[in-house]
Design brief:
Low-confidence stretches: 225-232
Largest sheet: none
Helix content: over 70%
Radius of gyration: 22 Å
Oligomer: single chain
Distance between the termini: 49 Å
Number of helices: 21
Strand content: under 5%
Order of helices and strands: HHHHHHHHHHHHHHHHHHHHH
Structural class: mainly alpha
Amino acid sequence: MAEFIPFLMFFTVCLVLMAGYPVAFSLAGTALLFALVGAATGYFDMAFLQALPNRLFGTIENTTLIAVPLFILMGVMLEKSRLSEDLLESMADLLGGLRSGLAISVVLVGALLAASTGIVGATVVTMGLMSLPTMLKRGYSSAQATGVIAATGTLGQIIPPSIALVLLGDTLSSAYQQAQLNKGIFTPKTVSIGDLFVGAIIPGLILVLMYLMYVIVFIRPANQSKPDIGPVSKTLSRAMRNLLPPVFLIVTVLGSILTGAATPTEAAGVGAFGATLLAAFKGQLTVSRLREVAQNTTEVTSMVFLILIGAAIFSLVFRGFGGEEVVEQFFNNLPGGIVAATLLVMLVIFLLGFILDFIEITFVVVPIVGPVLLAMGLDPVWLGVMIAINLQTSFLTPPFGFALFYLRGVAPDSVETSAMYRGVMPFIMMQLMLLLMLSIWPQLATWLPGLIYN
């Protein structure tokens, strides 16, 4: 009976989350309820909960996680400064003469916003409000238009600097050290968020190229006699004026990390300051705008850290029931060894993406399976990039894909939800294809970190 309790605990928290209860309280409440029942039946030692204050204090004082509010501030500031509107107009001017020029513009602008904001919801809503009506007017089908916008908005998951990569990197760093300590290595190597940023660059660029190839080959607007958006008489200088500031900010933030001049946390501070300067230069840095940015940043940051606290309680109780040993024994007994274990974990994460958010999966699943997989010999950077791309699909997979929710909220009533589901299917297949490519050629994720840091 005791060995089934961890699986029952995991299954119960999934049911509670599907019922719509807040994530942080679902994690903590389920864990504490199981702990009380386990203590009453003799299956759980309440002494495990004595480590809870140290765990929570360690989470709050984690300097690496300071990058989270700073990157959120950077993204919200760029969103409120109307940067995306200017970028889309500039790209549409440059590519308006091409067939599917507007769709290509959406992908390119989405990639730039992903590298400068990293906030999926903001990108999807902004691109939906600006480009969806025009795309429908220019002859794109509802499925084509919504598919491109929703999929492009999720690029912020994999292209650094990404909030998802920050959270995943911190979780994998702890799992990697724990895996090495379990193997008797008392001077463990470390893996940083910067390693994960560098490892995600090439896969992120490949995914953007796959999106562009699909748009160019398969997406054909019905009305090809008109330019995709607006007049084509805008000058190249205006386009470059709108394009260079965010590109410079991206290069500064990522370049400081790649060259080792700054840690991800320091680079996040540079990015937040740079985004504030861009907003000031555009005349958008008003008192009301600052108040709005500060409020949005505080809300998102509080939500993330509250989920972190709930996840810390859940993982502590899970370990108290011997969950780690059960998972490790289960993986070691699989017929296919490390290949079967990795495939199973990726399949579980993909299926959970239909019902859970990426933060929930990162804080619940990764701490459970991460130490076991890393102890079996997987490269932490490769595993992190694989999980990040897999989590990206959770934004697109119905019925609970958050990118679909965001776009549904701003799409006109004439756009059917079923059309949105059809539109994202090719992009989900491309994400899965990228996972297959990384499985065959892991160097796509490990080559650049090895080149830079070695």
